[in-house]
Amino acid sequence: PALSYELNSSLLLNNIHIGLLTINSYGEISPGIAKSWYLEKDNLTWVFNLKKGIKFHNGKEVTSEDVKFSLERLLDPKLDSPNGWLLEIIEGSEDFKKGAAKHVSGIKILDKYRISLTLSYSYSGFLLNLGLELCGIINKDSINQGDVVGCGPYKISEFNDEGCKLEAFKEYFNGAPYIDIININFKSESPIDDFLNKDLDVLTINDKNEYTTLCSNKNINLIEQDLLATYYASFNMKSNSIFSRDKDVRYALNLA
Predict the structure, then answer these.
(1) Pick from 68, 174, 88, 182: which is nearest to 129 by CA?
(2) What single-letter DSSP state applies at residue 55?
(3) Does residue 29 lie in a domain region?
(4) CATH number of the domain encompassing residue 97
(5) Residue 19: inside a domain, yes or no?
(6) End-to-end Cα spacing for the chain
(7) 191 lies in a domain?
(8) How far apart are alpha carbons 156 and 176 in whole angstroms?
(9) What total number of domains does the chain contain?
(10) What is the pLDDT of residues 76-125, one digit of tens each?
């Protein structure tokens, strides 16, 4: 998950990995592998108590060592993750990224099921960062084998350029998923046609024309759902468009 940087891969990884915390469908911070957490009196140190008995897809138990490994991996200069900024607020992260320290001083294992994260300064959005699948916990012993081993509801059973196959993880700590197998197609040339021909069971649409086409079909049940995502817009300031000519337009967009 440390190398994921766009929406589609994040949606896939969200089924495979889970972090200390999660963000539920209402945008609220919820327990992940941590059953509880609290902030010390210094207003900088967060302590997380892990649930016992959580299993990775390879059958190994999740411990605080895996948490430390996963979070430090996100900051590892050798990996050069595009998501390291999520944890740069942790004390000692800069020294670690520069190679001046072997470990991040602000990440401390208290015991097998307890870990503390000390920040360089108070930051209200830190727990939200931890709730992203990008901060998912992976098994430290499997990473060198090239396997994708998480502790989420699904595990990868097949993967290639055409797509991947997810199998329900029966030992998932929140209960096995209701759907046993999910096949994801990466290379469909016409997803709408494949869906209408019943070659796809589920389709995510973001295009107005596709939406209009599907709405006109009475045999299709459309489900609208809020999606937690960030989209970026850039402006060509050398063009002669209203966006480059009028700064008030840019201000208005910023306030929208």
Answers:
(1) 88
(2) B
(3) yes
(4) 3.90.76.10
(5) yes
(6) 31
(7) no
(8) 15
(9) 1
(10) 988 777 778 899 999 999 999 888 999 999 999 999 999 999 999 999 89
What digits encode the pLDDT tens for the residues 18-40? 999 999 888 899 999 999 999 99
What's the predicted TM-score (pTM) here?
Answer: 0.80
- The stretches in the chain having pLDDT less than 50 are none
State residue 70 phi and psi, 5-degree precision: -65, -40
Which pLDDT belongs to residue 2? 61
Gap between the Cα atoms of 197 and 226, Å rounded? 27
> What is the rounded CA–CA span in Å between residue 73 and residue 147?
15
Tokens matching residue 212: 């209009």
Could you tell me what percentage of the chain is helix, strand and coil, using 3-state DSSP and rounding each to the nearest 5? 25, 20, 55
φ, ψ dihedrals at 100, nearest 5°: -85, -10
Q: Tokens at residue 12, please? A: 């896939």
Residue 43 lies in a domain: yes
The one-letter amino acid at 229: A
Q: Which residues of 94-133 are buried (b: 16+ CB within 10 A; e: fewer)?
A: eebbeeeeeebebbbeeeebebbbbbeeeeeebebbbbbb
φ and ψ at 61, to 5 degrees?
Answer: -80, 145
Tokens, residue 73: 């991996």
| Sole residue written with tokens 């001046």 | 100
Contact indicator for 73, 79 with CB cutoff of 8 Å: yes
Per the structure, the complete domain to which residue 19 belongs is given by: 7-145
